[in-house]
Design brief:
A hairpin with a 2-residue loop joins strand 13 and strand 14. It is built from 7 helices and 14 strands. It has 2 domains: 141 residues, VC0802-like, CATH 3.30.2130.30; 179 residues, Vaccinia Virus protein VP39 (Rossmann fold, 3-Layer(aba) Sandwich), CATH 3.40.50.150. With 338 residues, the chain is of the alpha/beta class. The longest helix has 14 residues. The protein binds S-adenosylmethionine.
Length: 338
């Protein structure tokens, strides 16, 4: 058993990302907003490239918070070299300090003759205090852990080529991971704009192709990719006619925000999806479209309220952007062609 500890930005999308990236595990959700239980063996190192997972806690446990003594009695320790204990909170406070836990848990490892390196540990033992459900989880950390870890320095407006349409990196990364999961095939963004989706996909070393109709976007995206030091193919083309390769595994698309309130009525999107559907085999689609702010929901799926010909919609999420705008993330799989 492992515990997947989620970031607070959008727990519902983080759950979908965890299910796609840890597809060999049975993932269940308890009362906590941000702790998932995973049964089965997976490549937990994938947490390193995930947007919504702060870390996976392995060889540990999870229970209701009662007392420090109770927690210490449940944590199994053995001598470990060059380690650190890290404790952090989710969602408010339980009646204990994080430093007090770090000292007490560190003391238990110390009594087994473990050695510590707080600056550059080779193993980190994590303890999460989750006030949303009054729970505590612990285990060896795989993944970056809590904190921003460069998300702010990775803001889209730090890139050499920025436009207000540029997607937030954490949303783009989650979208790519949900669409491609553990599949190593080609990821396509048929309307790549400033390359937000391509950067996240290429950064995770996925094979990546972007297309845009606007030559300025193509030049700008190439500059962004070079700046980010990641590889992806970018071509100028019309997504409704471009000759996409047959073997793609994932399509992530954030189409232009037209006046049509219903994207299924947008000819550009319908024709692009039709083109992809006819030329390519089966793939997973993640579509990001604007929606009304009332649909934003950080914890639960929302109704897709959309039909896409040739696709089965499997989930939808509402993402707050600002007072008057939200985005809807639609996840779909291809239906067999007649
Ligand atoms: C909302 S923007 C994409 C933004 C992008 N996700 C980013 O992070 O920068 C939509 C893009 O679709 C492109 N586009 C519009 N019509 C197109 C077409 N027929 N084929 C390809 N790209 C098209 C526009 O030039 C624009 O760059």
């Amino acid at each position: 058993m492992a515990v997947i500890s989620l970031r607070g930005w959008h727990p519902a999308i983080a759950r979908a990302e965890a299910e796609a990236m840890f597809d060999q595990a049975l993932i269940t959700r308890g009362d906590s907003r941000r702790l998932l239980i995973a049964e089965g063996d997976c490549d937990w190192e994938k947490a390193e490239i995930m947007s919504g997972t702060e870390c996976v806690l392995t060889d540990g446990g999870i229970c209701d918070w009662t007392s420090l003594d109770d927690l210490l009695s449940q944590i199994k320790v053995e001598k470990t070299e060059n380690m650190a204990v890290v404790c952090w909170r989710h969602e408010g406070k339980l009646p204990i300090g994080t430093k007090e836990i770090e000292r007490a848990v560190g003391g238990k490892f110390h009594r087994e003759n473990s050695t510590f390196n707080l600056q550059n540990p080779s193993k980190r033992f994590g303890v999460v205090l989750d006030a949303s459900a009054g729970m505590v989880a612990w285990g060896w950390m795989v993944g970056q852990g809590p904190g921003k870890h460069g998300w702010s320095s990775m803001r889209a407006n730090n890139r050499p080529f920025f436009r207000p349409v540029s997607l937030e990196p954490r949303l783009a990364r989650a979208a790519v991971n949900i669409a491609a999961g553990t599949n190593e095939g080609l990821v396509v963004d048929p309307m790549c704009g400033t390359g937000g989706i391509l950067i996240e996909s290429g950064w995770a070393k996925r094979k990546t192709l972007g297309v845009d109709f606007d030559p300025e976007m193509v030049i700008g995206t190439k500059a962004n990719l070079e700046w980010a030091g990641v590889e992806a193919v970018v071509e100028r083309g019309d997504s409704t006619r471009y000759e996409f390769p047959a073997d793609i595994c994932a399509v992530v698309v954030d189409p232009p925000y037209g006046r049509n309130s219903q994207p299924s009525e947008s000819k550009l999107l319908v024709k692009t999806l039709e083109n992809l559907r006819v030329r390519c085999g089966d793939f997973k689609l993640v579509l990001i479209i604007p929606c009304s702010p009332e649909l934003a929901n950080l914890d639960e799926e929302i109704k897709p309220e959309l039909e896409l010909f040739g696709f089965e919609i499997i989930a939808a999420f509402g993402i707050p952007v600002h007072k008057s705008l939200a985005r809807k993330m639609i996840i779909a799989t291809t239906l067999p062609l007649d």
